[in-house]
Amino acid sequence: MKKLRTLTLVLALAWGIVPSGVIAATDSASEVESVAATDASSIDREREIELLRAQLEVRREHQTDLLQTVYWALGGVFFLVSLLVGFGWFGNFKVYERDKQSLKEEMDAAAKANAKELHDDIQKAYGELKEQIYQSVENKVEARFKEVDERIKRIGDRVLQLELARAKEEMRSNASDNMALTSALNLLGNYYKTVESEVPELLKFIIEKLDKGGKFTANEHTRMSEILDDLPPRYFTLTERVRKKMNDSEIF
Predict the structure, then answer these.
(1) Are 2 and 33 in contact (CB under 8 A)?
(2) Does residue 183 contact residue 167 with C-beta atoms inside 8 Å?
(3) Backbone phi, then psi, for 120, in 5-degree steps?
């Protein structure tokens, strides 16, 4: 409105159609309107400021409520996260305890199995070692007994040879042919099974004494016949000569 009046006044002055009084009145009215407009503008500005302050306060309250809502939401999220983490930790702990128990049972079972296997191996090794030791000792003892038996046999053979030599010496030292035949018969009867190597010598000695006139008693004749029958066939020639000499000789 003010701009429109100012524009009209300017046009009138330009064309010289506006009186000076009108111009003065117009200026006074313009000043009044200007003051009134200034006051109105100040009031409007204050109202705008108050309105802006109210809006700012509303925004602040809204932002405060929004921040509180966000804080509550974040707190709820943190609570849920903590709850989930707690449940996860609890679940993991239970799984860990279960796995630990399972692992412990497996280790116990493996330890028992290994202990049993080790015990079986030790028992087996002990049995084998015991068997080896027993076999070794048995072999050594058997070898020792065999050696002792051989020594005893050699000693026995030596003693037998000495006894046989002494008996043969006594047999040859008899002045009587009959007593010599008795000694030869006793030697032959005692040793023809154990010392077969002496059989030919004793048979030849008996033939020699029979040729010299020696005689057997009836019992000695029977015993001599039994011994001749029991001798091996390889002595057949000698046994037949003895039989012939016995049949030719007399019995006393």
Answers:
(1) yes
(2) yes
(3) -65, -40
pTM for this model (two decimals): 0.43
Q: Could you tell me which residues come within 8 angstroms of residue 75 by beta carbon, excluding any fewer than 6 positions away?
A: none
- Residue 4 CA to residue 160 CA, distance in Å, equals 179
What pLDDT sits at residue 8? 52
Contact 151, 159 (CB under 8 A): no
What's the per-residue H, E or C state across 26-71?
A: HHHHHHHHHHHHHHHHHHHHHHHHHHHHHHHHHHHHHHHHHHHHHH
Greatest mean pLDDT range, 1-15, 104-118, 200-214: 200-214
| Gap between the Cα atoms of 212 and 130, Å rounded | 71
Question: How does residue 240 score in pLDDT terms, banded at 50, 70 and 90?
Answer: very high
- Can you tell me the distance from the alpha carbon of 167 to that of 202, in angstroms, rounded to the nearest whole number? 12
Angstrom distance (rounded) from CA 248 to CA 214: 11
Here the tokens at position 124 are: 């087996």
Give the helix/strand (H/E) hosting 173.
helix 20-173
